[in-house]
Structure formats: structure tokens, C-alpha cells
Amino acid sequence: MGVNQSISDKKGLRSSVGSRLALLRRERLGFLALLLLALLLGFDPPIRSSQEIFPFYSWSMYSTVPNIEVFYSVTLISTSDLNIGPDSDLRESGIKGTETALCSHIVQQLGRAIATRNTGNIKKWRHQLERLYLPEGTLYQVISEKQTPMQRWKKESGEAVVLAMWRRAP
After folding, report:
1. What is the three-class DSSP state of 26?
2. What is the pTM of this model?
3. Which one is predicted more confidently, 162 or 92?
């Protein structure tokens, strides 16, 4: 009885392993059939409505991405500090703290306030910028620059407009 039991156990083990392998083969065949169907639908010209192949090439993915962005910057025209050259960007001027996120935030808020003609915010952000970063007697201008994300990434210039020019009081 013990020998017959072990033989039946081995047969049962073989049949369960065989059924699992068959199931895996069927799943693999099903996956390959699904992949083939997706490829045929994607590459078949009568079904496709345009030149785009959705999962691989689709300009419609970019239709909702904003194309033009507005950034504001401050350019130093002249300053009493001899180490700062004329017409230098505030972020690259070497003035302590101008490369920080806080300085960038103040410049962006000042630019938005000027663009929307919000005099209360203009005074507030101008005072913050001058108090924290600009030496006394500095002549500077706030510039609005429209760029595409690719121009900004490549550090190319966009369409620049001078919004305001001020001198910090000594």
C-alpha cells in the first residue's frame, strides 16, 4: 500500500506541474496574441485616422502643454559697487543671496505686480528686493521675457520687454 501511494503521489505531482505549465503556455500565447493585435491596430493605415501612431508617436500629447511662459528678471544697469559690471543679470551679479529661491520669488512677484499694475504689490516687492539685495544707488530694470520651455532649457533668449526702470535711493 505504501508503494502504490507513492506512485499515485508522483502521478498527481506530475499532473499538477503539467497543468501549471499548460496554463503558463496559454497565458504566454494570450499575451503574444494581444501584443500582435495591438501592433496590427497601431500600424494598419485604414484604421489609423492620421499620421500619428499613438503609443509611439503622437503630437496630440503636447496640445495641452503651454507653449509660451513668462519669466521676469532684473538687470543691473549701473551700481556703486565696482565689482558688478553694467547690464548684468541680478542672479549672476555675485551679490550675496541673489542666486537663492527667495530672490527669484521676489523678482517673479514684482514682475507679476508690474504686469498687472497692482501698485500695492509693486511697492511691497520693490521694497523687499531693494532692501535685501540691491546696493544703494543701483539703477536697475525689471524685464519680462516670453519663452518656450525649450528656449529656457537651452538658455536662449525670448521676446524681452522692459517693464520698469528704477534707482534705489541712497
Report:
1. helix
2. 0.57
3. 162
